[in-house]
Amino acid sequence: WSCAQITDMGLEFLGKTCSNLESLNVGGCHRITDSGVDRIFKGCSSLKYLNLYICKIISDQVFSSLKNRTHRLEHLDLVWCNFSDEALEWLGSSCRQLKSLNLWGCK
Q: What is the pTM (predicted TM-score) of this model?
């Protein structure tokens, strides 16, 4: 993958410097964890599209961090990610503008 070297540190930088970011594709970035995605959610309140395809280190914790925030997220790709039903509840209650959600291959 072309983003194999991207880590949470890179996402933290984006979260701090790209507050108007609307679309982010980090699919296949296997070194990204909840911490990095949380930094994006905190810093990029304009985010509408997020692709976390095969980011298997992502867990329920990242969705828990959405609970007390308002988001503009409209499209979320979680193909081959692992999380619980509770994570989907947090997602549904926090991302009211969500229009598409791809859960193909999730366990």
A: 0.90
Pairwise CA distance, residues 105 & 79, whole Å: 6
User: Could you give the CA distance from residue 20 to residue 47 in angstroms, rounded to a whole number?
Assistant: 7
54 φ/ψ sector (left φ>0, alpha ψ -120 to 50, else beta): left
**Is the CA virtual torsion 97, 44, 65, 105 positive or negative?**
positive
Residues 74 and 51 sit within 8 Å (Cβ to Cβ): no
Q: Which residues contact 30 (CB under 8 A, 6 or more apart)?
A: 1, 4, 54, 55, 56, 57
Q: How many CB atoms lie within 10 A of CB 90?
A: 19
* pLDDT tens, residue by residue, 48-81: 999 999 988 889 888 887 776 767 899 999 999 9
The tens digit of pLDDT for each residue in 38-51 reads 999 999 989 999 99
